[in-house]
Design goal:
mainly beta; disordered N terminus; SH3 type barrels; 2 domains; globular; 205 residues; 11% helix; eleven-stranded antiparallel sheet
Length: 205
């Protein structure tokens, strides 16, 4: 079969909420730039539509259900999304930016990674505007609230409305190793005393 020239690459995303994870092909989205544009546009529908979707409960990777109709997801319920597809359309000129390490507290997750910010602004001030909408986090690692790593990705989309706290830092809350159980102290055996002979008893008397 002859290869079709100019065919758009397939894009898939995995959307994570506080209770469910859904994956599928986002309707009308062909690159990351368009996805961010749609998510941050208040004039667009409050839902994103996924074709050929599958859904599963959070933390139960094997219990997924493949649905036989498109799935609608409310944008405000998204905590973050994994993106698999082109980054930005060709010809898009990006302003100068620098990567800054950030920690994002977005219950029930904490997210550590790199965010592109303006090189002329202080990172904390620049983060104020970034977390006002959906934004891209590169080299991301996702942990649960207790610091156990759940996964990682080259780039994920984070919903700034779900972020309760953020800091320009490389730190994150690390999981606490279970405390070692103290070993029971074994009592030293007491040597048995030999019974006194009749001669020893007479001497003691």
């Amino acid at each position: 079969m002859k290869k079709l020239e100019g065919r758009l690459p397939e894009v898939r995303i995995e959307v994570v909420t506080t209770t469910f994870v859904a994956s599928g092909r986002p309707d009308g989205i062909h690159d990351l730039g368009r996805l961010l544009e749609n998510l941050n546009n208040p004039a667009v529908s409050r839902h994103i539509e996924l074709a050929a979707p599958a859904v599963r409960p959070l933390y139960r990777a094997q219990a997924h259900v493949e649905l036989d109709a498109p799935l609608l997801i409310r944008r405000q319920e998204i905590v973050f999304a994994n993106f698999d597809g082109p980054y930005f359309a060709r010809g898009v000129v990006m302003p100068p930016q620098v990567d800054v390490s950030v920690l994002l507290m977005a219950p029930p997750f904490q997210i550590q990674g790199m965010v592109a910010l303006s090189p002329t602004a202080a990172p904390t001030e620049a983060l104020r505007s970034v977390v006002g909408g959906f934004f891209n986090v590169r080299f991301a690692r996702v942990f649960d609230a207790e610091g156990n790593q759940l996964g990682e990705g080259d780039q994920i989309i984070v919903n700034g409305a779900a972020v309760q706290m953020t800091c320009a830092t490389r730190c994150h809350i690390e999981a606490i190793a279970p405390a070692a159980q103290p070993r029971p102290v074994e009592a030293e055996p007491v040597p048995a005393q030999e019974p006194e002979s009749d001669e020893s008893a007479r001497r003691a008397a």
